[in-house]
Write a structure and sequence with these properties.
By secondary structure, this protein is of the alpha+beta class. The protein is about 35% helix and about 20% strand. The structure holds adenosine-5'-triphosphate (ATP). The site of adenosine-5'-triphosphate (ATP) has 14 residues, from α1. It comes from Peptoclostridium litorale DSM 5388.
Length: about 200
């Protein structure tokens, strides 16, 4: 499983469709200050569902959409697609290649896609659980992240080990099941209330 391709359109400093292909091994992105290198890693975290604008180095949701220059006017939407190789079936989906895409409009609306089928952000999160690729995954180590990991408390640090050892998925499923159980208990109580009222 590895990242094969990133396609950006209208994202931050990339107004035109830009495709970055990775051919295995190590790829370095080099360029002068302010040329958009960090915008590429922002794009990756954004597709994976990052909503905290501070972490994307912006303030408002629309700050990820190309804001215009003297040569090109501002855009009303942006989209980023990641194509991930899945020949080793690490992602639990019946495709040897998976494209995860997010599109957002200035209105604040966001759409998510897996292999061009519209889906929920939750579907993307579930697909990538335990792969290390999620927006909180350890596959993206941004500036200051190592310091943050070293100085965080043991519970936060443990989340990284849980993800690497494949436990996150089960923790997520357990929390989901617990939520459903709580909801069912509430519903049962309501039914009992109605039952005793009409008895
Ligand atoms: P450094 O080497 O200094 O860290 P960098 O190559 O990582 O720089 P980025 O921080 O990725 O550069 O890109 C900064 C550039 O992106 C700035 O020129 C900024 O104007 C531009 N930029 C950011 N958001 C937008 C936006 N919404 N619309 C247009 N341009 C944007």
């Amino acid at each position: 499983m590895y990242l094969k391709k990133i396609e950006l359109k209208g994202f931050k400093s990339f107004p035109y469709k830009t495709t970055i292909e990775f051919n295995g091994g190590i790829t370095s992105v080099v360029g002068p200050n302010g040329s958009g290198k960090s915008n590429i890693s922002d794009a990756v975290r954004w597709v994976l569902g990052e909503q905290r604008m501070k972490s994307l180095r912006g303030e408002k949701l629309e700050d990820v959409i190309f804001g215009g220059t003297q040569e090109k006017k501002a855009m009303s939407y942006c989209e980023v697609a990641l194509t991930i190789d899945n020949q080793d079936s690490i992602m639990d989906i019946d495709f040897s290649e998976v494209t995860v895409k997010r599109r957002a409009y200035k209105s604040g609306e966001s759409q998510f896609y897996i292999n061009n089928e519209q889906c929920r952000l939750r579907d993307i999160k579930e697909l990538l659980l335990d792969t290390g690729i999620g927006k909180e995954g350890y596959s993206i180590i941004e500036q200051g992240k190592i310091d943050e990991i070293l100085s965080s408390n043991s519970a936060s640090r443990r989340r990284i080990f849980d993800e690497a050892s494949g436990i996150s998925k089960y923790r997520y499923k357990k929390d989901e099941a617990q939520r459903k159980l709580n909801k069912t208990s509430e519903n049962l109580e309501r039914i009992y209330d109605v039952f005793f009222e009409i008895e």
